[in-house]
Specification:
heterodimer; A: alpha/beta; Glutathione S-transferase Yfyf (Class Pi), Chain A, domain 2; Rossmann fold; 12 helices; 8 strands; globular; B: mainly alpha; Fumarate Reductase Iron-sulfur Protein, Chain B, domain 2; 2 domains; 11 helices; about 55% helix
């Protein structure tokens, strides 16, 4: 199946590994992500502090573009997903808001009819493609790999009709499908601090420290959000110094982990871009397995 | 977070305040102070007033106390409070409404987060997408931040890993006009109110 795809701004730069591995994994599973032409920033969780209408109009433009392409719109970024969902949801509920958004989009010669909803890649992987297809595609079972499944906050929460329950087991079921073990983790949907790491660093660092220190015994963290990956991956050295204890745990995107199990090369999933080295994760796993065997 | 004591005087109460900052006044008035929001909040510990305390102050109309608190600037918009609120109060949306109010009234601690939000919006207006390098340079110059040094180290790490792109990823020029048109129309509609 073909989907319209909006990678989101982070996936063009700091989270390129997510973009590249998502496209590769979906291709391997027989579907295709076709990038939406000239999609724009969804506003992240920032624009709504400056303007309420803008925080709905920016995602609404993408929804309008996707409608004209007549395919389902898929995104990989939690923030994009949340904002696109929020816009389509609020517009369907509130006629006066809908009128305002119609006016704003009309100024850009666009129209959003409200016929398209956004879908997260996880939803596509689990509900369209299916866990069985994923498991069947595995050539290198990740047996013995202990994974912390971290969903982050935005994908997990939102408005009254939000469809989180199945998404909140989606990553765990994918991890099991590739043969790895998802460990119990209390902070699965706890916020990583988001932009506080930039604006209020001490507060941001404390949140990430809490998340990281609870990952004891795991080989890696797996996440589905570009912001979470960045916050958990990029500050481990600084946190280690502050704690006086070394924390060093690779943080992978779910699609990178799936890519490994599908036998894709580390280059195919841009594993060299992870800050805490994730390269050689499988090699280390194999070596540890041999040692146990002896 | 703490127990701030102050003497309550009648003239401190502004009963129109709740309409200004709450997307849903009726629901906010039903807050029973159970504290589930505060218990769910990852940054409540650093707030002048916890979310629970903040709702109470808004109910009373204690505008100055609320607007000068750092609480809503520390909200990460993780929606944990909204998801858990037994009364169905739009807690997170109230936090962002408080930010917008503070920014438009130019009151309270409109510190680094406000500068960050402005810088973010400016770069999206210019390119249609977020350009991280431009965002950080604009933000650090606006906020006159001393942390810029610390961040340049992160920047170098990301650069070495190939996670920074120098050229801004912009939309095609004709599509950028749509973005500008959207910004203009939003400004027009919001100034009417």
């Amino acid at each position: 199946m073909k989907y319209s795809y909006m990678p989101g701004c982070s996936l063009l730069t700091t989270a390129r590994g997510y973009d590249v591995s998502a496209r590769a994994v979906v291709r391997e599973l027989g579907s295709e992500l076709i990038e939406l032409d000239d999609w724009n920033c969804c506003g992240a969780n920032v624009i709504d502090s400056t303007s309420y209408l803008l925080s709905l109009a920016l995602p609404a433009r993408n929804l309008a573009l996707a409608e004209s392409e007549n395919r389902e719109l898929v995104t990989t970024c939690s923030s994009c997903y949340f904002n696109l969902f929020r816009a389509s949801h609020l517009v369907s509920k509130d006629a006066s808001l809908r009128d305002k958004l119609d006016q704003i989009l009309a100024a850009a010669h666009l129209r959003y009819l409200g016929q398209r909803r956004v879908r997260h890649l996880l939803d596509v992987l689990v509900n369209d493609i299916g866990i069985k297809t994923v498991a069947d595609r595995v050539v290198k079972k990740l047996t013995g790999l202990k994974v912390i499944t971290y969903y982050g906050c935005q994908i997990a929460r939102a408005h009254d009709e939000y469809d989180s329950p199945y998404l909140l087991s989606a990553v765990d079921s994918l991890i099991e499908a590739v043969g790895a073990e998802s460990l119990h983790y209390l902070w699965k949907t706890r916020c990583c601090g988001s932009v506080l790491m930039t604006t209020e660093r001490t507060v941001g660092l404390k949140l990430v420290t809490e998340l990281l220190t609870a990952t004891h015994g795991a080989d890696c963290i797996v996440t589905v959000c570009p912001m979470c990956q960045m916050n958990l991956d990029a500050y481990q050295d600084e946190i280690s110094v502050r704690l006086g204890a070394r924390i060093r745990i690779p943080v992978l995107f779910i699609t990178q982990l799936m890519g490994l199990a599908f036998g894709l090369s580390e280059k195919d999933i841009l594993l060299e871009q992870n800050i805490v080295p994730a390269k050689g994760l499988l090699h280390r796993l194999e070596k540890a397995g041999e040692r146990d065997y002896r | 977070m703490g127990e701030k004591a102050f003497e309550l005087k009648r003239e401190m109460l502004d009963h129109t305040f709740i309409d200004l900052v709450s997307p849903d006044r009726k629901k906010l008035l039903t807050c029973i102070q159970c504290g589930t929001c505060t218990a769910s909040c990852p940054t409540a510990y650093a707030m002048d007033y916890t979310p629970r305390q903040l709702w109470r102050l808004i109910q009373f109309g204690l505008k100055k106390e609320v607007m000068s608190a750092n609480s809503f600037w520390l909200c990460t918009a993780c929606y944990a409070c909204t998801a858990h609120c037994l009364r169905g109060i739009a807690c997170t949306e109230t936090m962002t409404t408080l930010r917008r109010t503070a920014m438009s009234l130019q009151v309270g601690n409109t510190g680094s987060m406000a500068r960050f939000c402005e810088a973010f919006s400016e770069t999206v207006r210019r390119h249609g997408r977020l350009n991280e390098i431009e965002l950080m340079t604009t933000f650090f110059s606006k906020a006159k931040h001393m942390w810029a040094v610390g961040y340049s180290r992160l920047g170098i790490t990301l650069w070495r890993k190939g996670r920074v792109s120098l050229g801004p990823s912009s939309l095609n020029v004709d599509r950028l006009e749509q973005i500008e048109a959207i910004y203009r129309k939003v400004e027009e509609l919001e100034s009417k109110r």
